[in-house]
Amino acid sequence: MLEPVIGLEIHIEMKTKSKMFSSAPVNYGDETNTNVTVYDLGFPGVLPTVNKGAVINAIRVCHALHMEIDPVLRFDRKNYFYSDLPKGYQITQYYKPIGRNGYLTFNTSTGEHKIEIERLHIEEDTAKQLHSYDCTLIDYNRCGTPLIEIVSKPQIHSSEEAMKYIDEIRSIVSFLDVSDGKMEEGSLRCDVNISIHEVGSEKLGTKVEIKNLNSIMNVQKVLDYEFERQSKCLETGEPIIQETRRFDETSRTTQAMRNKTDAVDYKYYPEANIIPISLDQAFIDDAIKTSNELASSKLKRYLQCGLSEYDANILISDKDLSNYFDNIVKNGVSYKLSANWLIGDVSAALNKFDIPISQFPLTPAQIAEIISLIEKGEINNKQGREIFAKILENNTLSISELASEFNKGMISSSDDLLKIIEEVLDENEQSIIDYKAGRDKALGYLMGQVMKKTGGKVNPKDTNSLLLEELKRR
Prior knowledge:
- Helices cover 41% and strands 20% of the residues.
- It is built from 15 helices and 16 strands.
- It has helices at residues 52-64, 159-175, 216-236, 281-289, 295-304, 309-316, 319-329, 335-353, 364-375, 381-393, 399-407, 414-427, 429-436, 441-454, 460-473, and strands spanning 2-13, 68-69, 72-73, 76-79, 89-92, 99-108, 111-124, 128-131, 136-139, 146-152, 188-198, 208-213, 243-248, 253-259, 269-270, 277-278.
- Strands 2-6-7-10-1-11-12-13-14 form a nine-stranded mixed β-sheet. A three-stranded antiparallel β-sheet has the order 5-4-15, with no helix packed on it.
- A hairpin with a 4-residue loop joins β8 and β9 (136-139).
- α7 (319-329) packs across α8 (335-353), α10 crosses α11 (399-407) and α12 (414-427) crosses α14 (441-454).
- It is elongated, with a radius of gyration of 30 Å.
């Protein structure tokens, strides 16, 4: 039985204000060739300066991936001539990466997996080529953008594992605010190395590389196609060539680009214009200490605070959604109610207006105020939703004033409320029998009948208490 052996190289553009070795700004989507300096364009005599923020970002990702962090920062030159590399070389870390020997754990349908990570290094991105029918244009805005490259060991054995591995890496860099991790914008790109061998064999097959995949779904398509293609080669006796291939999205196949004999000799050597930089242990510790909370840590916290695994996983699926939730509960309101509101009413509004949570017009404090009023019994859930709808239409309205309007007609007298409860019980003797028999739905039905009779103008908590007391008497 054959299985794939997969190694992944993930390139991540970092969210920094300036580039890796120049002061040019990093802004995705700006007009072409506006975010450049003479250094980015490869002018003679220009010198690099190391971006401190990018180094801090790299340290944080190394720590999240349980890596050994090199206390001496060294850079090397990768030499080649191509139109997207104006200097004729790329500054990278070939001999001494900032991070080594890490790992990442995650779960798939087949259980828990631990993938070892060989290295993490810092480098600069190349320019972007824009191909036309008769020429190629160059946008140098991307040239010099800070990158980290994360190289796994060949320990992944299915497309599902590969997809989950990439998704976990994307979550880490996103929650750390190192990168937005948007594959569709090129801020996270993936190179795939795949070979096949018999299950249980220690001998690796001939490796094939597929470069620059820009979506997790494409990674899955490539791996599934390559496994099938290479398996057929072995079955028919056709040799598997060690080569670099590209993915054709139209045909959903991989096409040969060059074989191993075409590989470029990059002639790496130490970068002479950047002397080795000693990273003080206090500097490394501070970078780690000031890191944002990871999704895995938030998941544990949410579960400990009473959220279901389903709700907790929805919240950590998006960094901005999770941060919005955290800002709600900072106001001292219930985790469970906050999750219900965010996953329910707020998410419905986001879908309706087709906007992300980062563009939602209501603040977490406003949502917390509505939840707090419900918890205190000053309004019920229905009234909370009505207030939510009103302030969504007009954000200048006062939540407390809207709540006061609802409270004007509220039944606050215990005697009046008890009379209504007695009426409901007298009219629903079968529900009383069902409740006594242990059918919990009967209580919900009786509460619904009280709400119907009162038009919802009662405190749910007080009503529930009085209803239970009266049921005990009968």
